[in-house]
Target: Amino acid adenylation domain-containing protein
Amino acid sequence: MTVFDEQAGQYSEQNPVLVNHATDLAYVIYTSGSTGNPKGCMLQHSSVCNFLHSMKLAPGITEDDIVMAVTTISFDIAVTEIFLPLVNGAAVLLVEQEAQHDPYRLQAIINQQHPTIVQATPSLWNMLISSGWAGSAQLKALCGGEALSKELSSELLKRCGELWNMYGPTETTVWSLIQQITPQTGLITIGKPIANTQVYVLSASGELMPLGIIGEICIGGAGLARGYLNKEELTAENFVENPFIKGEKLYRTGDLGRWLPDGTIEYVGRKDYQVKVRGYRIELGEIESALNSYPAIVACVAVATPNASGEKDLVAYIVSGQPVAVADVRSWLAGRLPAYMVPGYFVQLPELPLTPNGKTDRSKLPAYHHHSAQPTIVHVPARNVAEEKMAAIWQSILGQENIGITDNFFELGGHSLKALRLLQAINSREPELGIRIQDIYNRPTIEALLQQKAESSRIIRLNRDTTSANNIYLIPPILGNSILYKQLADMLNGEYNCYGLQYSGLEQGEPLYSSVETAAQELSQQIIQHQQQDDFVLLAYSMGAPIAFEMVKILESKFNSIDLVLVDSQVNQQSVDKTAEPQEIQWLLDQYRAMLPGHDADEKRLHGFLANNYRILHKYQQQGRIKSPIWALEAQDTPFRTQMEEWSEYTAGGTTHNFLVGNHWQALSEANLPQLRQVLLALAPPKAQEQHVPE
Model:
């Protein structure tokens, strides 16, 4: 501005009076979030100033920079592109609206105008790279708004001088955590908090989550919005009292994450993208994170979609610059996720549908087809009548056609409930085969299943064998069926080879045990025949504990190192109350039905099986001591707290006593699985833990 000398004297030499305050609103910006209902976030001057000051420090900006403004003003990351350069004396390169969705036009602008800082969503970066953009060595690339894949980060690092991963909700002023990504970066994380920002990972009840355990990302500090305009109830719901800093608030992001040892946070996904499939609670973001780590995948989305039978199927939509082999992706995921989280179907798209803000529009994903994924490389059709009959049964249970005799039941979308249905269907149509549930788990192809012989093995393989993992044998409770451990086994995939042992009498024609010692004798022989080396774990729950104790007495003569983990079982049960026995057996029968839905065993036979187990358990009297250490995990709501401390009298190896949440029948519930896994990882030799070093 030019002021002529003769005019200068007409104006006051005093600075103008400040009429604005740090707590005044800087802007109200509307966001639909995950609910689809627009809400106006009220951001104050102080929050914006703190954000801009922190961005100056990192990723950093100087007066020599040129920032390309490519984002619509209705998206809050435009604050970075417009105000950050202006308050630091840098230049803003405004891009016309038509160019914002034209990668070739954007490429031309970058090549002609030479911006030094460009911020965009992963979708826009992918679009730019797909258009043939060669990159710029002077460019600092900021990527945020969605998860950054390993493939995209590799492509950007080839084309840019610096790459930063940015994370933050609108409610905490644009970005709240940042991380520089380098060629040496292993796991892609959202980094650490910016200046004057506190980040917590909390449980549903507001408790701090331990290192490595998933919880909700909650943010406090100078970046918090005042709340939502004219939405007091929603404000109170999402902006809560900070229990760690009196008088301050926390914003509950609805995002899930976990702390890593280096002090960064790994983003896992949205709470509202948490689904329940076949009884398993699944974070779709965890599946997407694993998919994003696959070298050829540049973008992906995981969804849970109801199928014709009303059950939910996991479907992965992937984008890649080349054809992707489903078998390779499935194998990649199998080494990083529990089996129940590996999608049954994969759909490759040229690109993902986007919202106007450049984020994935899940509502516009195309319908998937059952033939979209073929897990086997070579299709081997049925060769005889027996194989044709079996293939027809498989097709009816799995709802698929053209199933080959070498196709894996579980890779075709089979799971524990479908395995039980398959067992019932085979034995009702082909009773002469005498198929048992362990046969389906141990021989999950038509060819192998028909080749099986009626052998004495009572061992079920509950997850995939991994040569670098350790072995754990799982002894069931009074219900006698180790499929109860399937959810735990899936969680331990890659860390332990999980083998369940089945009680005799569970299947038709099998003899019942005459005592706990008899059961221990038979089951320990199974392990002796199966286990090739020392260093394994025996885990037993309820009635399984005294059987496992007697087994260890036998096994210690063959093996030098056994860890015994006992879950909620007292020493020596009370004697049987004959008048209460019928009610007890009926209650156990009801528990069997509840814990193993779909297993429609003959009720009379099952009743006799449970009654026999009940009686031999209550006749058993514990004696002697073992050398092996005992880990005692007790349900905290049990009627007699600390009853498991008595196990210390029966071992020379010492006991470790901890509590699980809930009552006896909730000991293996989903809420306790993370703690059970942590205990078992502490027992595993280093070779099992090496499987989870971030790549």
Residues 370-377, 686-695 have pLDDT under 50 and may be disordered. The radius of gyration is 30 Å. The chain has four domains: 25-268, 278-372, 374-455, 462-692. DSSP finds 20 helices and 27 strands in the chain.
